[in-house]
Design goal:
CATH superfamily: Gcn5-related N-acetyltransferase (GNAT)
Shape: globular
Oligomer: single chain
Number of strands: 5
Number of domains: 1
Helix content: 25-40%
Structural class: alpha+beta
Largest sheet: 5 strands, mixed
CATH topology: Aminopeptidase
Strand content: 15-25%
Strand order of the largest sheet: 1-2-3-4-5
CATH architecture: 3-Layer(aba) Sandwich
Length: 150
């Protein structure tokens, strides 16, 4: 397995992983078509302007079997976080037949090191039930974030 930085030419792979992730989380196909359209618009630009740093895990003769990325958002800082940007890990996905082989961990380690190399003092993510154990093993912890759905 090798991990490489994704390019704008990898947009379709990134979208396929993202939609597969949401599908496995139980989202209905009618919602996924909308997510795909909005995601396509966002990632097409963000892969070019640096707003999204993505990596792909490739296996010989199987291609890109997993991937993930870091969204870098403008952020006003806080009392404890004074940087004007905030990184969020998104779209961690590995094809089912390649799971439990350390691929997601390798993707996460690559993204965490990229964030450190960019000078960030933290990185955030939203965890699915399946991903939570890995993220906790890597040192992530729950915070006080809350959400109001409309």
């Amino acid at each position: 397995m090798t991990i490489r930085t994704a390019t704008p030419d990898d947009l379709e792979i990134i979208l396929e992983h993202r939609i597969s992730m949401f599908r496995e989380m139980g989202y209905h196909e009618q919602h996924l078509a909308h997510v795909n359209a909005v995601s396509r618009e966002y990632f097409r630009e963000a892969l070019v302007n640096g707003g999204y740093h993505a990596v792909l895990a490739e296996v010989d003769r199987a291609g890109a079997v997993g991937g993930g990325g870091v969204l870098v958002a403008a952020w006003p800082g806080s009392a404890h976080r004074t940087q004007p940007r905030r990184p969020w890990i998104l779209n961690i996905y590995v094809h089912p037949e390649f799971r439990r082989q350390g691929i997601a961990r390798a993707i996460m380690n690559e993204l965490i090191e990229w964030c450190r190399g960019q000078g960030f003092d933290c990185v955030c993510l939203h965890a699915s039930d399946q991903g939570r154990p890995l993220y906790e093993q890597l040192g992530f912890r729950a915070t006080n974030e809350m959400r109001l759905d409309f």
